[in-house]
Amino acid sequence: MSADFESTSSEHLSKAATLGPLCFVLLLVTHLQYAYSQQFESSVREHVVAKPLTSNSGHTLVAVDKRLYRILDGAEPSSLVELKAMESQQSRVSQAIQKVTVNVQQGAAQGSGVLVTPTGHILTAAHVAGKPGRDATIVLYDGTRVRAKTLGMNRFLDAGLLKITETRAEPWPTASLGLSKNLKLGQWCIAAGHPGGWNKERGAVVRVGRINSVLQGTLVTDCALIGGDSGGPLFNLEGKLIGVHSRIGTDIGDNMHVPVDVYTQYWSRMSNGEAWGVLPGFKPMIGIRGMSANDEPVIESVIPRSPAEKAGLQTGDRILSIDDKQIETFADIQRAIEASLPGERILIGIERAAQRFRLEVEVAVDENS
Which of 255, 276, 172, 154 minimizes the C-alpha distance to 209? Predict the structure, then answer.
């Protein structure tokens, strides 16, 4: 970890402590996840050709009234003129972002997303996208339903990507991209999403708030979020996309968002369908340990009352496959488990006493993560 990152982290975390103990702990976990992610990235960066998501004018940029220049940096309205100008600006941005804020559905599960390319790429949260290659349904602002596929995701930072697979004559509407690295504490922001799913009478729900903390890997705002908002967009007062909703706080002042710069940084890998990392607080596990002397895919012990024990896995079992993918080492097992999601059922092929068969195991959350 670099000295620059450590010094920046200390400064930001000291500021975050003022938001309360719960938020401070959440931000500390996020910082550790980011640091681990950066270490992981350094080992592969030389093999990756950076092809970042580029800025575009988009369809959500709204000209700012000159009376609001002071407000853009986070100042509060000090006159009725400024208050009315701010209200008008928020209203215009709220209208502009409706067409790019979408509902994301996978079976009974759903969240939100935001269109960012004319060819149909959609930014969302990694926990909304789930896994690469999954089918999804996108509900547009007018109720039109289109098919999509999940692409890659950086689970360390909860950043996910989808792409609409249907074609149409005209390009898809796109959000105007901003930058998150230059954001300041107190700046006004506008959150949008489809809590509870798409609703014809209501459209995307919009909330106004302020930025409470700017950290590497996480933005914290007091924009109130609820179920179904995850993956939705966060804009500034100019209508520029600055983040994507990640985790809903237990307090109104500690809602977490993925900075838009994260998507720019990892665009090449995610658009190519690569997924890596573990979601903060949602590390998957089944409850087995490997042989300490070697890397053979043999179970050395099974944790009592774990999913593995409940499914019938035993000490000495040799794991041959997980979801029909061949397993050769215990590291292969760990990678396969990390690529799954808590609550997901996986099919494990094993060899026991010269007999081969398969067992279904439901992945759980590692309570120690």
Answer: 255
Question: Domains of the chain: which residue ranges?
Answer: 51-275, 284-365
Query: CATH topology of 51-275 equal to that of 284-365?
Result: no
pLDDT tens per residue, range 189-204: 999 999 988 888 888 9
Whether the model clears a pTM of 0.90, i.e. scores above it, the answer is: no
Residue 42 has pLDDT above 60, yes or no: no
The CATH number given to 51-275 is 2.40.10.120
Helix H, strand E, coil C: the string for the chain is CCHHHHHHHHHHHHHHHHHCHHHHHHHHHHHHHHHHHHHHHHHHHHHCCCCCCCCCCCCCCCCCCHHHHHHHCCCCCCCHHHHHHHHHHHHHHHHHCHHHEEEEEECCEEEEEEECCCCCEEEEEHHHHCCCCCEEEEECCCCCEEEEEEEEEECCCCEEEEEECCCCCCCCCCCEECCCCCCCCCCEEEEEECCCCCCCCCCCEEEEEEEEEEECCEEEECCCCCCCCCCCEEEECCCEEEEEEEECCCCCCCEEEEEHHHHHHCHHHHHCCCEECCCCCCCEECCEEECCCCCCCEEEEECCCCHHHHHCCCCCCEEEEECCEECCCHHHHHHHHHCCCCCCEEEEEEEECCEEEEEEEECEECCCC
Domain 284-365 CATH class label: mainly beta
Which pLDDT belongs to residue 50?
37
**Residue of 279, 275, 240, 282 lying closest to 261 (CA atoms):** 240
- pLDDT value for 281: 74
Distance, CA of 207 to CA of 201 (rounded, Å)? 17
